[in-house]
Amino acid sequence: MTAIGEFGEFAFIDRIRATFGTDADLLVGAGDDCAVFRAGDSVWCVTTDMVVESVHFLREANAEDVGWKAMTAAISDIGAMGARPRFALVSMASPPDRDLAYLDALYAGLNDAAREHGAIIIGGDTTRSPEGLYADVCVLGEANGGRYVTRGGAQHGDYLAITGWPGRSRAGLDCLQRDLKHPALIDAHLRPRARIAEGQWLARQPGVRAMMDVSDGLAQDAGHLAESSGLGVAMTSASIAVDSELALYCAEAGVSIPDVVFAGGEDYELLFGFDPAVAGTLLPAFRREFGLPVFIVGQYDRAFEGVRIDGLPPTQFGFDHFRKT
Amino acid sequence: MTAIGEFGEFAFIDRIRATFGTDADLLVGAGDDCAVFRAGDSVWCVTTDMVVESVHFLREANAEDVGWKAMTAAISDIGAMGARPRFALVSMASPPDRDLAYLDALYAGLNDAAREHGAIIIGGDTTRSPEGLYADVCVLGEANGGRYVTRGGAQHGDYLAITGWPGRSRAGLDCLQRDLKHPALIDAHLRPRARIAEGQWLARQPGVRAMMDVSDGLAQDAGHLAESSGLGVAMTSASIAVDSELALYCAEAGVSIPDVVFAGGEDYELLFGFDPAVAGTLLPAFRREFGLPVFIVGQYDRAFEGVRIDGLPPTQFGFDHFRKT
């Protein structure tokens, strides 16, 4: 026998995805941030995201934060298609001895995060769990005017850019663990926001060809994004936006800025590939529209597979653990 | 503190449902078999249903059957609105040591049940579970011509009818446990079918005012259905369809027919309320269309709350456990 733990999650997903069917109204199937389907004269995106106690969060964690993050992670997948979140369903399996106040707080976090991003909860399921709490969040979003952006579609030479401040969530987690006082970084970790308005705006711009949200880490997700277009991506560690608080934290914690930025995930920033011809207009227009940084962090390349950072594979670059500077 | 186990699942659902928001495109919110929403010029139904190892199924159960039943239970909620199942998403949390062959079989059952009812899986999530397997199935269905039937909407004096052969799944479970040879009953338990064509047909008929699928048991679900219209329901134990195999099983097992029929759940038969004025045409037309029994099992009544069977509350009728005849 082969256990799923040995086989690997991504390999298993590829394996089962091949058994799914097709439908004329299915525009994007499994393997992107969302599945996309035609519903009458409209186009909808749908995604599910499951969080598990002792895997994604600890029993001691604040329940409202757990609910907020679970909802935001799922909603961010809608934003990553450039769509508008509308409706969410939450299935929860809870141990029978779990305090009602804990569950009320969990749903308060779920509701708040849904509303923050323009969606509401419309249903779900509740059942008993023999051990630990499990919450599965399904979100439905509408693609404005039928427009959406998949992970694939970028071409050789296209630029790769990222919104906002990647690395803040990972830095915030480290601040919590080491009792460092950087409330804005801690907030970025506990109460991340999905880039909903930004995603919809990017989906409207000509030349934007591929998009995803960063949940597993910038370097790893850049690899996934490039792979969806059958390309590699050359990234440079110098071209990243670092806000003053993240810079301060890195100095204080003795962590290299590129490490925390390339390793960091759960920021739910948007990573997108676009035609170099529009770079001169697209990025300034984005900054004006949202008052938010957006920087080119790499370029798609057909000459190799995977990610290179400053010409090196990520393992040699060493982004995958925090190094002392 | 109050634990959720003491507070009760239905009470908790009512409690959290009150915290959800509203939306002009939300036609039916939490509390029915599905939530229903407007998507452009079309109307869609969505539902989620979570199954948990050691709660809904045993580790030893055949994984294909587990997958089939999980998908069918969720799809049946689409049928209960009179809608057409289209797309499903499956989130699964699995222990890392679970055999790949087990998970392949689980997804084979999920895929087969989806296809059997006209739907396909289009996405989902896979994650690690510290203990036991959890699967959450989300199904999206389209309401033909925008037509759907909710649980509410029945009036005093309306008849309550049920399709097919309620009780077969419960009898099949008993056959498995007692090693009785009734393959058709065992099949009804292990491989239930949702009444998809029947639900869509009923949603088209004038006078059909309320509908749900029977998952928890006929008597219990009839109570839920009547409550959604703010009414009670008077049921009679004589007016039920009993196929010859169920009758044979009851004689052999020493079980009363009304007991197994009123206690039985997981048949996914449709229970529906309708205007008595159409009884003479509706039921014969149904039988002709589907070659399937359909019988009036009760009448809505404003004079009392809950269910009465032959004039007695279900507890006195004793349907809630198997009695020796």
Keywords summarizing the entry:
homodimer, 325 residues, alpha+beta, six-stranded mixed beta sheet, 37% helix
Lay out the secondary structure.
Two copies of one chain form a homodimer.
Chain A: H1 4-7, H2 9-17, E1 26-28, E2 35-39, E3 42-52, H3 63-79, E4 84-94, H4 100-116, E5 120-128, E6 134-142, E7 159-163, H5 168-178, H6 183-190, H7 196-204, E8 208-213, H8 218-228, E9 232-235, H9 244-253, H10 257-263, E10 270-274, H11 279-290, E11 294-301, E12 306-309, H12 314-317
Parallel strand pairs in A: 4-5, 9-12
Antiparallel strand pairs in A: 1-2, 2-3, 3-6, 4-6, 7-10, 7-11, 8-10, 9-11
Helix pairs in contact in A: 3-4, 3-7, 5-6
Quick structural gist:
2 copies of one chain form a homodimer. The first copy, chain A, is an alpha+beta fold.
Folded structure, characterized:
The structure is a homodimer of 325-residue chains. By secondary structure, chain A is an alpha+beta fold. The first copy, chain A, contains twelve helices and twelve strands. The first copy, chain A, has helices at residues 4-7, 9-17, 63-79, 100-116, 168-178, 183-190, 196-204, 218-228, 244-253, 257-263, 279-290, 314-317; strands spanning 26-28, 35-39, 42-52, 84-94, 120-128, 134-142, 159-163, 208-213, 232-235, 270-274, 294-301, 306-309. In chain A, the strands form two sheets. Chain A has a six-stranded mixed beta sheet. In chain A, a hairpin with a 6-residue loop joins strand 1 and strand 2. In chain A, helix 3 packs parallel to helix 4 (100-116), helix 3 (63-79) runs parallel beside helix 7 (196-204) and helix 5 packs across helix 6. The longest helix of chain A is centred in the first third of the chain and has 17 residues, at 63-79. The termini of chain A are far apart. Mean pLDDT of chain A is 93; it is low at 319-325. Chains A and B meet through helix 1, helix 2, strand 2, strand 3 and strand 4 of A and helix 1, helix 2, strand 2, strand 3 and strand 4 of B.
